[in-house]
Amino acid sequence: MDEKNTIGHEGKLPWALLPTDYYWYLTHATTTKDASKRVALILGRLTFEDVIKFDKKYLSKWHLIVITKQLSEIFYNTYADYDRNHIDVVNSFDQAAHKAKQLLDTPSSMIESVFVFGGVRPYEQALESKLVQRIYLTRIFAEVPQCDTRVSNFDLSDFRRIKRSSDEILAELDDKIFEENGWKYQFQVYEQKDL
Ligand SMILES: NC(=O)c1ccc[n+]([C@@H]2O[C@H](COP(=O)([O-])OP(=O)(O)OC[C@H]3O[C@@H](n4cnc5c(N)ncnc54)[C@H](OP(=O)(O)O)[C@@H]3O)[C@@H](O)[C@H]2O)c1
């Protein structure tokens, strides 16, 4: 996010590729303690289209819970090339959260953790739901001049910033200021205060 909580423009990220950011968020979102398990991602249909285009090689690490108003059979026909055993289609964030909980609670579950991966409504509704335990935020120190995709209610009052937790994957990168491809940014991790 930039300083005004912008996350996208014209279907893309509004900044150039930030190699360390790409490495940081993909490592968090693909690492499981048990190598046989997957991370579930909750994501809107447009973000799903980005994932199958740009992050295809990580699909074997993920179980995707895609939010769309489309009928699931139409969705599955459109994306028939993808393994539907690892894609659930739901119509709302609440259904996505319910599905994620069901997957986590199944005995011998193949899912180890759940990430909300965007876009705007999934991020906003996840925060409103109070279900979020941790936020991995890449804060871009700029206001992008053009944007059409911005989170309007990014309220962190229920969260506290964690400083370099020792059990954190890639903890050594947290808090440093990076400058790559003309963009200055920092990784910030927040945890729900009640945890
Ligand atoms: N910086 C970041 O962290 C980040 C992360 C993700 C994406 N992005 C960027 O953000 C943009 C995409 O995000 P976006 O917000 O425009 O789209 P999005 O949430 O990925 O997808 C929007 C679509 O998802 C479905 N949807 C999402 N939330 C829904 C809800 N609560 N209820 C029902 N349907 C829902 C609808 O699909 P149907 O039209 O099929 O009904 C809607 O048209 C791109 O520019 C992408 O590059 C940035």
Automatic annotation (TrEMBL):
It catalyses: (6S)-5,6,7,8-tetrahydrofolate + NADP(+) = 7,8-dihydrofolate + NADPH + H(+). The keyword Oxidoreductase applies. Pathway: Cofactor biosynthesis; tetrahydrofolate biosynthesis; 5,6,7,8-tetrahydrofolate from 7,8-dihydrofolate: step 1/1. One of its GO terms (molecular function) is dihydrofolate reductase activity. Gene3D superfamilies: Dihydrofolate Reductase, subunit A. GO terms for cellular component: mitochondrion. Residues 1-192 form the DHFR domain. Its EC number is 1.5.1.3. InterPro entries: DHFR, DHFR-like_dom_sf, DHFR_dom. This is dihydrofolate reductase. GO terms for biological process: dihydrofolate metabolic process; folic acid metabolic process; one-carbon metabolic process; tetrahydrofolate biosynthetic process. Keywords: NADP, One-carbon metabolism, Oxidoreductase.
